[in-house]
What does this fold into?
Amino acid sequence: MRADQPVRPVQARGEQCIAKVCPRPRRRASDWAFCPSVAMRARKSWREKLADNKGLPRVEPITPKMSVRWGKGTVVIPSPKEVDWLMKRVPPGRLTTINQIRSSLAKRHRATIGCPITTGIFAWIAANAAEEAAAEGSRNITPYWRTLKERGQLNEKYPGGIPAVAKHLRAEGHKIVKRGRKFFVIGFEDSLHPKPSRSRH
It folds into this structure.
């Protein structure tokens, strides 16, 4: 930097982040230290994030973009606590999936579908909040490892990654198989909670 080159104010960078002007993929680690909005979020614990409902749940019409995949109707955007509550209800030895949770949320709010994006994000927050509580000595935590992705796939984004999640599941009697780069619970359908209802013909 030249001696006569003006120094860019730190505040300007922070204001840009607050206004969501900074292009997300281009942010550097050094940028976060100067962003007041990010520094504020960094101080929030996982359990605080879980408790922050942000005005949710909310039922909205399915957008034209979403309707290409999900059809017409309404979508429920759940609260983090709702997703956590459904995950907590799964007993030892049993399993659920994100899609099952979405179906339960849709039925609860009389919506056509449960939001796939926020449900997945809130399950991830619930998992990290559980590990945060466990680290402080709590034993009654949300058994997040029992919530799988579609087709019985283990969620690699949960705390500890696949090794930790697989260890929990094996301890509860489930068998894990690797297919390509992904890991699945064998015969997970037989352990689903609640059991999917079968249509009568």
Q: What stands out?
A: DSSP finds nine helices and seven strands in the chain.
